[in-house]
Amino acid sequence: MQFGIFTVGDIAPDPATGRAPTEHERIRRMVETALKAEEAGLDVFAMGEHHNPPFVTSSPTTILGYIVARTSRILLSTSTTLITTNDPVKIAEDFATLQHLAEGRVDLMMGRGNTGPVYPWFGKDIRDGIALAVENYALLRRLWREDVVDWQGRFRTPLQSFTSTPRPLDGVPPFVWHGSIRSPEIAEQAAYYGDGFFHNNIFWPKEHTRRMIELYRTRFEHYGHGPADRAIVGLGGQVYMRRRSQDAIAEFRPFFDNSPTYGNGPSLEETMRQTPLAVGSPQEIIDRTLRFREDFGDYQRQLFNVDGMGLPHHAVLDQIEFLGEEVVPVLRKEFASLRPAHIPDAPTHESLKAAQR
Predict the structure, then answer these.
(1) Helix intervals (H) in the chain
(2) CA-CA distance, 209 to 165, in Å (whole number)?
(3) Quick one: average pLDDT of 87-104?
(4) Per the database record, which ranges form the Luciferase-like domain (predicted)?
(5) Which residues lie closer than 8 Å to 126 by C-beta, 6 or more apart?
(6) pTM for this prediction
(7) For residues 338 and 24, what is the distance between their CA atoms, to the nearest angstrom?
(8) Which of 52, 119, 242, 317 gives the lowest tally of CB atoms within 10 Å of its CB?
(9) Beta carbons of 69 and 98 less than 8 angstroms apart
(10) Cα–Cα–Cα angle for 67, 26, 43, nearest 5°?
(11) How much is the pLDDT for 252?
């Protein structure tokens, strides 16, 4: 099982000071967060893609490419690559290049995004969101798996005898997760191809998340990829820790209350009851995460959001230390002891290369 962190790269003011980091500061701090994650022994660092303020993650492969050069072990991924508004040819080229630079330690998560105006900014219609996701990904798979592609579709100009370069490292394309919060069509797409399905359940009650995962697993088996419980599932979550739970809640509450996502809605306590948001001691985070297995079955990847919302950078680094030193070692041991032998590990470049051989 893989454990890691993800960031959406938002800029927000610290409620205590009213000061927000500059774009330059935020980008540099994301790099420092990734380096800290590797130092702490985490498995994955992932970042989203947004093309509007208050976010700075418009070019994930650029930032990940820089992080590749500063790290040696951690797997680098995206928590959203916009399959709807990016050209699949460019995705194929960018991530194959990153895969070579990273010696294979890269995968990516396809998603439609949650910012409606991004569609017209890139010449697309939001009403075509699902159709774009389906068509663009079908083309991307061919670009990575066929040396010469002839193709014609609805949403881009045709390709004639086209070869995407560079070719994937060792002839093995990066592993793809399909990320969705609410779209059953995306769970179906992941199942059809036998890819991973990542449900970022960060804002959702467990009943909804369970329905989406069960749909994916059922259809994964239907399409002949193996038993439903061998499907590849990832989950999200958000945590904030201090040694004492009351300190964690007192520190996190101002950021929660001033968040454009959480603020002016249910209270912190109610949100923690209804969603995976976990604020408390390391042991409370361990207990809460272990319940994910009870709720959703065995799964392969757990990513935590620990930054953003104006949280001070030192507090973010503290969260990674808690994860690396106290939380993840226990979770690894507990999940491994509970997992049946036939449940697969999360795919890596080496495992995919071995399977291809």
Answers:
(1) 23-39, 60-70, 88-101, 118-121, 129-145, 184-193, 206-222, 245-257, 268-274, 282-296, 313-322, 328-338, 349-356
(2) 38
(3) 98
(4) 1-294
(5) 116, 119, 120
(6) 0.96
(7) 44
(8) 52
(9) no
(10) 40
(11) 98
